[in-house]
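[Automated response] Your request has been received and processed.

Submitted sequence:
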Amino acid sequence: MSQMDPMDPNYPPPNVPPAPPGPYQSAEGVTRGEPNKQATKSGFRKRGLIALGGLFTLLIAVGIVVVILGKNTSSPAPTANNDLQLLEWKSESESRDGFSFNWVTGSIRNNSTRMYTYVEITFIAYDASGEKLGSTIAIVKNLAPEDVQEFRAPVWQDNVSELRVKEIWGR
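Generated structure:
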């Protein structure tokens, strides 16, 4: 009696009925649609690259829209015809809980007929020898036509003996 070899093309013996068709076989025994691991990996890779390319394209489109929409709002628009007038300003110091705080305070007038939603007043700080120490900015919002508003801004530099107005602008 010979031992059956599963590698033998005549295996199983002819008197054994064939197995019922599996999920990827037809009744005729033809294999169809059986997953190929290499093809499946390749398919996942392709779909992943397509999704990544789509995401990249979307990010570029969003970036372009942000640049276009934000283009005119990031840079200050200088005022024309002295529409903004600094009426008065002074440097103040106050002590609280053993700490000293320096401020620049004052008021500004809108001499125009337009509304300024944002006004910036830049001051330069100098020490006693005339060396520039730095700057500070006072901000006024929603300055109506012919209106006057007060402002107060911190001066962060120490040993300031003089403040000078560098620039006033608004939009």
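Summary generated for your ticket: Residues 37-70 form the longest helix (34 residues). Confidence is low (pLDDT under 50) at residues 61-80.
If you did not submit this request, please reply to this message.
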